[in-house]
Design goal:
The protein is an alpha/beta fold. About 40% of the residues lie in helices and about 15% in strands. It folds into 3 domains: about 10-160 and about 380-394, no CATH class; about 175-235, no CATH class; about 240-375, Ferritin (Up-down Bundle).
Length: about 400
Amino acid sequence: MRKLLMCAGVVLALCVATSGVAQTRYSTGAVSNYPANPCFGPNLPFSVGSAASFRGWYALAGLPNVSRWENNDVWGSDFRDGASADNEPQGGSDLPDVYFYNGHGICQAAPKATDSDFIFVCSSNGQPNSTDIGASSRWGNSPGRLKFAFIEGGMCWAPHIMWRLDRAYARFKPEVPYLRTLAPAVYRLFGIAEHYDYLAKSLGEDPAPLIEAGTSSDDWLSGICDAFSIVCELPYYSSPILEDTGPAGLSRRDAVRQGVARAEEIHAEIARRFGELSPPDHRLTRSVADYVRKSAKRLAAEVAHAEEPEYAREATRAEALDATTCRAFYHLVYLGEVYRLAHMCSEQRMADEIEAYLVRHMGDVERESALAVLPIRPLVAVQAGTGLLAMAGA
């Protein structure tokens, strides 16, 4: 038996066959109408539209739709195990590879980890309307074929959010400078070998001392099967400038140099303050020590890589902001760790001085960028939707 529910993780890695893979089949069930008698309300006006938006993703890929029921045509029995239930030929949830449901769910008012979860529809057929999915659903057991289910996904806004994020991503370069572009904002996944080669070429020396972490799950998986992996990384904040393709008045190379110079100043401040402390063996101590030891050469590698011909053209304002202001932000995070270590060591004067430095430089970042924090819900929805599309394409 195979049972796979909603996967909203950042990394999805699959072993897939190289040929003869059947197209992913999908179904949707959406319930917007919940009259007070007999279904207790309230109505969910966006459920049907959410299912339509979900189908739009798969229709664009030309994938086959098995069923698309709404309101009274979504039966409680569609989700319960059985030949005339979840394998019912016209609408059972175990018929397709992927099923999307948007409607009411029920749980206890103060649920515990062991309490049941219910799908609750509103239909005159296939009753009862409620289904205990833990006790009554057996997706993927023969003859069923369901592999992926979205339960109350509510994703009608996800395609629009993906479009906006694609527009923003297409306007500046990836954080890892040696990625190979497959499409706007889509890059080939890299492993430890590519990272080693980049550092070796940029520094002109063996970079092994700078690489202490292991490689990715994709590297490991590729040695076992014909692996397909996808990493869906999304920003936690954004800025209107990151969509500005107007000229910045300097080359991409100069933007990188300015950003690195700014980062080197912050790195020097971190190294000086950290060297004045005698912190205990703590995860923050190890983090800052690793940063101080390795960052100088990593920054040197970025400057060397910026000598490549593609950095000679004029930068857009989005690229300039990313190379200068956003770069500074990431390095200031480590100074925040030194601030915490100063408190741990009872060095209050140093902590106050570091705080003043942080306030000044973070104020510069805020003024230059107008950064705004992005809400987490659409970001997670994009990650989950990416997983679904990847499975459909596999």
